[in-house]
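Fill-in record for Zinc-binding protein.
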Amino acid sequence: MGGGNGQKSKMARERNTEKQKGAKGSQLESNKKAMTIQCKVCMQTFICTTSEVKCREHAEAKHPKSDVFTCFPHLKK
């Protein structure tokens, strides 16, 4: 028959440890691989989902003497 408080607590702990194991590793590696956009002037990298607006902001703030397309040639379309 069993099923006392001690057993219930043990089962709850085991379930929680199983849930913790589900989150494997860190996402840092995949974030590093996603850094595909690079400023050609300062070589700073940006994640692949960076918008054109953010690229323009970077170029205007960091390289005011350079053209936006000099920094990010992929914007020329």
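KEY FINDING: The two ends are 73 Å apart (CA to CA).
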